[in-house]
Design a protein that fits this description.
This protein is mostly beta strands. The protein has three helices and 16 strands. Strands 3-6-11-8-9 form a five-stranded antiparallel beta sheet, with no helix packed on it. It has a five-stranded antiparallel beta sheet with strand order 4-5-12-7-10, with no helix packed on it. Strands 13-16-15-14 form a four-stranded antiparallel beta sheet, with no helix packed on it. The N and C termini lie far apart (62 Å). The C terminus is likely disordered.
């Protein structure tokens, strides 16, 4: 069929240029036809549809999820004292954000934050990111996840650091649910999961880690493996145990208690209820 590459080896760029050719002779993504994994379309269309690479559930809007030694750190800010950030930008914060060498998250470097021994409420750290027009137009719900570790004296107060998103294009603070970074054992690794709904008027956003509490403590934080993107879709049928169910309800009614289907309510016990019966009251 015209337009398809047949079942033959394809030359690499080095092989092509070594034979006197040029990079422009390499097949582009409109000339490659994908039939693997149930696909049957041009590579360019598969990319657009999110089946491959930059789209769909595998898309990560956070640049440099694990930093390198040339990656810029989080920006520090001071939004004035408050449990909720204003915009996650501006002001002066004594905290230091950087990129530190170390294999905390199976990488050579990680995002580091050094917090002084003070009440840091209203201060925090932020990184900007941009989403695709498709997620804006669908007003998508996006996930946020990242790994973290800390050392703190005294211990880190759970949910002192909270996670927010600021919509830059329409100056709107967007809540993340859940938004609190939980306390874990010092020097162990935890993972944060949250989600937020994008604004229909914005492509540009700011991820914010905000000190919401007022506890005075000194801590060094490490962050990595950031992911901001579409949620994975899970498909499948609901499956329950096919055995009979014994269940003890709390009764608030009076009078004679009824029989239900093939199950009999005797006293406070419902027994011999074959799948797929679920009692509801």
């Amino acid at each position: 069929m015209s337009g398809k590459i047949q079942n033959e080896d394809i030359k690499s760029l080095a092989e092509l240029t070594g034979a006197g050719g040029s990079a422009s002779q390499l097949p582009n993504d409109t000339k490659i036809y994908v039939t693997a994994n149930g696909l049957n379309k041009q590579l360019s269309q598969a990319i657009t549809d999110g089946d491959i690479g930059g789209g769909g559930d595998g898309l990560n809007y956070f640049l440099n999820p694990l930093p390198t030694n040339t990656t810029g750190p989080f920006n520090t800010y001071n939004d004035a004292s408050g449990a909720v950030p204003i915009d996650g930008a501006g002001g002066t914060s004594p905290a230091v954000s950087g990129i530190t060498a170390g294999s905390v998250f199976f990488s050579d470097y990680y995002y580091s934050i050094e917090k002084g021994n003070e009440n840091s409420q209203g201060k925090g750290y932020s990184k900007d990111f941009t989403i695709e027009p498709g997620d804006r137009d669908k007003v998508s719900v996006l996930k946020i996840s990242f790994d973290y570790r800390y050392s703190a004296l005294p211990s880190y107060p759970t949910k002192d650091l909270t996670v927010w998103v600021y919509s830059i294009d329409d100056s709107k603070l967007i809540p993340v649910a859940p938004n609190g970074i939980e306390a874990i054992g010092a020097s162990t690794v935890g993972t944060f999961f949250g989600e937020f709904q994008v604004s229909k008027n914005s492509l540009n956003y700011r991820l914010i880690l905000h000190h919401s509490g007022t506890t005075v403590y000194d801590a060094d934080f490490a962050f990595g493996n950031f992911n901001v993107g579409p949620q994975a879709k899970l498909y499948g049928s609901a499956i329950t145990d096919s055995d009979s169910i014994t269940w003890t309800p709390t009764w608030t009614s009076s009078g004679t208690q009824p029989n239900i289907g093939n199950g009999t309510i005797s006293g406070n016990t419902v027994s011999t209820l074959p799948w797929p019966f679920w009692p509801c009251y």
